[in-house]
Amino acid sequence: MKKQVLIAGGGIGGMAAALAASRAGWDVRLYERVAQFSEVGAGVQLGPNVVRCLQAWGLQKALQQVAAFPDKLQVRCALSGKELGVLPLGRTTVQRYGAAYATIHRADLHGLLHGGVQRYTDAQLYQGVGIESFADASGQAGRAGVVPGAETVVSVSTTEGKEIEGDALIGADGLWSRTRLLLLGAQAPRVTGHLAYRALVPQSALPPSLRTRHVTAWLGPRLHMVQYPVRRGELQNLVVIVQGRAPANLEEWDHDANARDLEAALLGTSTALQHAVHSVEAAGRGWRLWPLCDRPPVRSADDMARGLVALLGDAAHPMRPYLAQGAGMAIEDAAQVERALSMHDLEVPLRLRRYAVNRWQRNARVQARSIRNGRIFHATGPVRWARDLSLRLLGEKILDVPWLYRGDGMDLHRS
Fold first, then answer.
1. Which option is the CATH number for 4-188+295-414: 3.50.50.60, 3.40.50.360, 2.40.110.10, 2.60.40.10?
2. Of 62, 80, 129, 170, whose CB count within 10 A is highest?
3. What is the pLDDT of residue 144?
4. 307 has a pLDDT exceeding 80
5. Angle (deg, nearest 10), helices 326-341 and 48-56
6. Is it the case that residue 146 has pLDDT exceeding 60?
């Protein structure tokens, strides 16, 4: 008989996990609390490490139909507007790492994963149904408690009051993961003190000088902006991150941003950067504002899996966006879930343990590097001067990240 995995959360990580577990030969039941599968936010950058995962799942054609493939990453000074360094992408990335560097709308990434689940698997997807608690007969318990004398299964209680049994549970339920709360205890996400202003603008609504086919990062004191094309290049994604106070209610706060506040934060920056920011309002679009939260880097495999329960993506390792790998690490997690669940000679707890052992150090490294990058991006004084000089002298060497783009240990071994 096939084993059955239950998945909490139907976002990017949950859909990737559903596709991966199905490929490993498991039956899948996925539960999403909201009534409709969707993704909030704007753009996502996908390094070649992530694109190779999508290719392995048969999603290359779907990716090409919705993504953009920038020809370079350039870094510019937010104050002077001068170029500091360039990393070639496009063909260079394919030659070095075996896959392209892509930029994509979050909804399009979610859509192609959802489409893959529907096209290639028999996974059962439940919308408007969440997982409230779980009981793990292997020894780990959620609020429902351990079931004495039960077979080695995990049972969950849903928001509809139903009891469902499975052979494993994967918590892919995001930053405010209930699965994590029940598995590891109350640990609120950490407020970073950074605010992200996000906007999407049709490139056709911009003057030619402001349209772009590449990724541009503007680095300034206590702020930075990133812009790049998404949706086949038809839209431009802009993200401005500034340091500021977060609101009290972090779980629900997401509203139309005050463009005047953003303009005030950008006083003193270059004319070119301000023109890009003003283009959003000129095109009749608005800004959305999110406070950024994360957690400290993963400390051990126990932070990602215990017994019959594993955590994936933001439920396990939410990270700051300064390495552009949040969605990417969730997809890499799912690829490792596929490998682990395919180890049919091992008991399920050992398979999930293998998944966690193979993933926790890489995720911790990406989390730590993201924190470090944020400090460098927003540096002031002598540190900023040293950063800019280093980029001018060694731009491509600094901007390329071979240990990241080659993939995790398993991926590197295969290549």
1. 3.50.50.60
2. 170
3. 43
4. yes
5. 40
6. no
